[in-house]
Amino acid sequence: MGYLEFASLQGNPIVASSDVEPVPAPARTGLSALEWQVVAIAQRDRLSTLSEPGRLAVALGMIFGGERANPRLADPRLEALRRLAVLAWHKGYTLPPSEVRAFHDAGFTTEQYETLLASISRGRAALNQGTRHEHDRTH
């Protein structure tokens, strides 16, 4: 049986802390519950909610009142998510690079982008499948 003297190691680290590289935190891949709610709401938003209302629309809104047709979120981070989600619900993976950049600039990771698009893609497929079944029943 061998003998190892641990007393000589007391107070001395086995590995100096400067020799160890810090392990980076894993990238966030998911979205929070609030962020998923924004994605769900974005499913019902029209593409027109992404553009600024024209002068005529603003004037008519001032004259006749009514609901504002441009539901922007107050939080810029959530608005970047909403914009990308609206586009993804309507256009799939065909997204403008400027919107993808804005999404990343808002603090979202590439992994979250991929998770978002995969989820919306599954949702679009399910909606299309339901539409086909509905069409088959009526014809």
Explained architecture:
With 139 residues, the protein is mostly helical. The chain has a domain at 30-46 and 73-138. Helix content is 53%, strand content 0%. The chain is built from five helices and no strands. The protein has helices at residues 33-42, 55-64, 76-91, 97-105, 110-138. Helix 1 (33-42) crosses helix 3 and helix 3 (76-91) packs antiparallel against helix 4 (97-105). The chain is globular. The chain starts with 32 loop residues before the first helix and ends with a helix. The model has no long low-confidence stretch (mean pLDDT 80).
The low-pLDDT segments are: none
- What portion of residues is helical? 40-55%
- Termini Cα gap: 84 Å
Instruction: Note the overall shape.
Output: globular
- The helix/strand order is HHHHH
Rg over CA atoms, rounded to whole Å, is 25 Å
Give a short account of the largest sheet: none
Structural class: mainly alpha
Average pLDDT confidence is 80
InterPro entries: AhpD-like
Keywords summarizing the entry:
139 residues, mainly alpha, 0% strand, globular, AhpD-like
Per-chain topology:
Elements: H1 33-42, H2 55-64, H3 76-91, H4 97-105, H5 110-138
Helix pairs in contact: 1-3, 3-4
Give a quick summary of the entry.
InterPro entries: AhpD-like (IPR029032). It contains five helices and no strands. By secondary structure, the chain is mostly helical.
